[in-house]
């Protein structure tokens, strides 16, 4: 594939990859979420992305495809993270509506929309020890890559590094939501499970463009 544009065929492959990756990480996500949370994160993400891949719409508008994927996620996995991820994809899709190919600039717009949708839905901001703490740095890196005229391969490589750093930084943050927020002492030094999902999401894109 070209590292300059994301086309319909690429989007189909990416959703299949996301399904496979989330299923393969299901047990790991269940394990880390079970330390302080409900332990359903892995199942939620596997279910959500399976729905997005299995219900792939007959569309050429990539914005609509992402938006409909978000709707499928929210319907199939109506838990907190399923709803957040669905909201993110719906907002990201809206940011690139009527596009039939996505370059670095459009992918940066999609990712910013994704983060905005999740932030508004969950009322979370950077520093709250959530998935936003890995996804927002990735969005910033993509916006910078777009401004610098970099390729999708280069941009997502930098976004992955930013997401991984953001994930690690959650170890020192005080949680504002969920069970982590009620057990601040126990939660200290723990990586936020949601931020791990964010890294997995970015890494799937990065790995695809690196091929």
Question: Could you walk me through the main structural features you see in this protein, from its secondary elements to its overall organization?
Answer:
The chain is mainly α and 211 residues long. The protein has a single domain, classed as Alpha Horseshoe (Serine Threonine Protein Phosphatase 5, Tetratricopeptide repeat), CATH 1.25.40.340. Helix content is 72%, strand content 0%. It is built from 11 helices and no strands. It has helices spanning 8-24, 26-34, 41-54, 62-76, 80-95, 104-122, 132-147, 152-169, 178-182, 184-187, 193-210. The radius of gyration is 16 Å and the shape is globular. The termini are close together.
Detail the topology: elements first, then pairings.
Elements: H1 8-24, H2 26-34, H3 41-54, H4 62-76, H5 80-95, H6 104-122, H7 132-147, H8 152-169, H9 178-182, H10 184-187, H11 193-210
So, the CATH homologous superfamily?
DhaL domain
Strand content: under 5%
The helical percent reads: over 70%
- The CATH class, by name, is Mainly Alpha
Q: What's the number of extended β-strand segments?
A: 0
**Structural shape:** globular
Radius of gyration: 16 Å
CATH topology: Serine Threonine Protein Phosphatase 5, Tetratricopeptide repeat
Order of helices and strands: HHHHHHHHHHH
Any guess at the CATH architecture?
Alpha Horseshoe
Unreliable parts: none
Give the overall pLDDT as a whole number.
92
Biggest sheet character: none
Estimated structural class: mainly alpha
Terminal CA distance reads 8 Å
User: What's the number of domains?
Assistant: 1
Q: How many helical stretches?
A: 11
């Amino acid at each position: 594939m070209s590292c300059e544009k994301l086309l319909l065929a690429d989007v189909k492959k990416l959703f299949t990859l996301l399904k496979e990756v989330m299923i393969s990480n299901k047990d790991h996500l269940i394990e880390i979420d079970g330390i302080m949370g409900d332990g359903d994160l892995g199942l939620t993400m596997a279910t959500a992305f399976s729905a997005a891949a299995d219900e792939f719409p007959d569309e050429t508008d990539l914005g609509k495809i992402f938006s409909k994927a978000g709707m499928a996620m929210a319907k199939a996995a109506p838990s907190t993270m399923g709803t957040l991820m669905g909201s993110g994809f719906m907002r990201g899709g809206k940011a690139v509506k009527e596009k039939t190919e996505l370059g670095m600039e459009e992918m940066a717009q999609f990712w910013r929309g994704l983060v905005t949708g999740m932030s508004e839905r969950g009322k979370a901001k950077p520093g709250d020890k959530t998935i936003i703490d890995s996804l927002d740095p990735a969005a910033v890196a993509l916006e910078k890559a777009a401004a610098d005229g970099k390729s999708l391969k280069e941009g997502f490589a930098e976004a992955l590094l930013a997401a991984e750093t953001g994930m690690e930084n959650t170890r020192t943050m005080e949680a504002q939501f969920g069970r982590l927020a009620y057990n601040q002492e126990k939660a200290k030094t723990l990586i936020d499970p949601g931020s791990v999902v964010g890294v997995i999401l970015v890494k799937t894109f990065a790995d695809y463009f690196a091929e």
